[in-house]
Design brief:
2 copies of one chain form a homodimer. With 299 residues, chain A is of the alpha/beta class. Chain A has a domain of 168 residues: Acetylglutamate kinase-like (Carbamate kinase, 3-Layer(aba) Sandwich). Chain A has 10 helices and 17 strands. In chain A, a hairpin with a 7-residue loop joins strand 13 and strand 14. At the A-B interface, helix 3, helix 4, strand 3, helix 6 and strand 11 of A face helix 3, helix 4, strand 3, helix 6 and strand 11 of B.
Chain lengths: 299, 299
Amino acid sequence: MQIVIAIGGNALLRRGQPMEADVQLQNVAVAAAAVAEVARAHAVALVHGNGPQVGLLALQAEAYAGVRPYPLDVLGAETEGMLGYLIGQELYGLLPGRQIATLLTQVEVDPDDPAFARPTKPIGPIYTREQAERLAAERGHSIAPDGAAFRRVVPSPEPRRILEIETIRLLMRAGVLVICGGGGGIPVAVRAGVVRGVEAVIDKDLAAVLIAREIGADALLLLTDVDAVYEGWGTPAARRIAETTPAELRSRGFASGSMGPKVQAACRFVEESGRVAGIGRLEDAAAILAGRAGTRVVR
Amino acid sequence: MQIVIAIGGNALLRRGQPMEADVQLQNVAVAAAAVAEVARAHAVALVHGNGPQVGLLALQAEAYAGVRPYPLDVLGAETEGMLGYLIGQELYGLLPGRQIATLLTQVEVDPDDPAFARPTKPIGPIYTREQAERLAAERGHSIAPDGAAFRRVVPSPEPRRILEIETIRLLMRAGVLVICGGGGGIPVAVRAGVVRGVEAVIDKDLAAVLIAREIGADALLLLTDVDAVYEGWGTPAARRIAETTPAELRSRGFASGSMGPKVQAACRFVEESGRVAGIGRLEDAAAILAGRAGTRVVR
């Protein structure tokens, strides 16, 4: 089968962890083990987030006075390089003889997407309210609460088209494990055949939906640090939903809860493709696919 | 035909130019036009340098106090992302309908390569002697003269093996324009099947030779800002060498002159493969291939 797996930038750098290279390498080892378990039996395209990492690069660029900071699309491309390298390197050791390709991925967005007027995507480290407000005043960043903390937020437009989709199809058919759409892909606008980056960060789950649909993937796994979608989450009667449908998830309000973005992405993929989406914990990737863990969303 | 083209990091950021994103985009437009002219008639793999860019990322990382600077292999991966994106984006507009793939590329080196004890590869901006000596004292960088100026230098070990070579072959056969081996590739050591980055920057011309040999390329173009190899360079009798052999170039001392690295790379490719190498100006890429400009090195 052809499987698209989406893992969060937070799987590579957990909330509050220092953004050091070696910390990320340790986290990457966990993620790579989960992906490799699926990839031993299936063709896999891996999409990863980049929120913490793109924010760090922005901070580093701002800290160096010699050159104006590069725009977010360029920083996004840098994170595709960095994270694709770290993840791919780990996978290489786990999948002897398998070709593993990190493919830079540009994703077309609509330059008139309303998201540009309303930044929502958190990037970079977490701040106290005072720190965040100072950064906002000094640098013109938008900020927003993230749990009890604050983070910088940037626009997150809808992904419309994957410029490299034919190459992804080609690699998947050849059995190459493809790391693509990293950080949701590099957001670009295309006008009269000319491609130019835009200042945004695309949601990597939505980019994964688009990639999965366009390559005709059999399943999409949306992996996070929660083990499933739950009925009665936070109550003593909490019960894992093992299998459900987009209609049921939407009618019962799951699309707007804390798992909202994952649920919405899963519903979108199942509705558009008729195939299966899975939501659950990174470490359970293979078990979710087999129906032994997580939440499966089917037509 | 299958052509491997190597362009310098200096083609993307000329000596002394400010390292701004928009300056690089303008230079990228010139490079992309030259590459596109060749790619309209041939399968192309493009290898680019990253000296100025990897040095800038190192400076930015050092300027931000919150996180320890990432090692050179990770910064190299970031530059593969950034530059592959900028070049690929420009090529996309010039080659409608063509798939263009930037492929992260890891290159195995020997961890015992003598180059690790003797840093030679300049990265980052140019400095005065005083600036360079201060940086060396403060940060432990190695420095060396570069023309009249000074730059940071890092180890540059020999490339031994391209980990993604099968994927490059696959993409070339399918007619995808592949941007690979950026910055000479990310230097890694492989021990007992485990891949780990090493602190170095590989020479992109030598990486291009290895890629060209391994995919069985028909020609290798080594492009720079000098229009050919010259007899009597700098004298009134200077004469472009239109066609020559590795034996002639070596016996007449061209392998140790100012064009030495390019000449050595060309000789190595021709001797190992029996195919053609070309040396010349970026803008002349197609003309060099056709024998109308530059220096052709043949068996």
